[in-house]
Hints:
Elements: H1 2-8, E1 10-13, H2 23-39, H3 41-45, E2 50-52, H4 62-72, H5 75-84, E3 89-98, H6 120-126, E4 132-138, E5 145-147, H7 158-164, E6 180-182, E7 189-193, E8 198-200, E9 207-215, H8 218-221, H9 232-235
Amino acid sequence: MPHLYKEQGYVLYPNFFEKEELTHLHKICEAFHSQWLVNNNQAYTNGALNSNGLTASTYLTTTDQLFLIQFISQPKLEKIVSQLFPEKAIFLNTQLFFDPFDANQKNYWHRDMQYTGLTIEEQQACLTTQNVIHFRIPLKPELGLELIPGTHKAWDTDEVFETRMGKNGRLSSDALNNSVSLKPDVGDLLVFSANMVHRGLYGNDRFAFDIIFCDDSVAFKAFINPMHQPTKALLLQLTNKHLF
């Protein structure tokens, strides 16, 4: 599997989890989401598609925080992390993806790095030197993601750049050539590079939990929120602290 990720920028692991393994995770995510909607209703109605920071104490009990931290650091996930990252990796954040309030809202091609404040030249420079990887865990059957294989290590063609940046009459929702659509089911694990060109496929009441890992480097320290990391008290209860 690592060789597939290296070549195409993503790997789908079918039936990675028993569905029973996800039952409590699903309940925690639903509890988080219901509270998030109460406090972020305007953002949701204005087009928000995801929330983050599930591991913080904002909406969860300490018991549920511990469950999430243990889930994130479980050995079978850490094994994949160690296989895919060239050097040591650490936990960056969590995200929860859902459908937009407006069913007609269009999805959009992007690379995550375009929202970090880096210039285009800086994005090009760090494309093959910095690693951020999503571990997507669908909690409901979903329409999935559309990806452009290989773009985790190759810069945009003119068409791709103009599309994702909305230039020269193109829209970020326009179709692109050479794309692959992936439709993970409950129990599957989809691993993909945040650096690659991709877009979410809305609909089917999507509800997916993402764990995000990054290089253990100075470049990413500014993006790590201490509130999203386990407290010292929680760390003491972990048998596997390697990713924090």
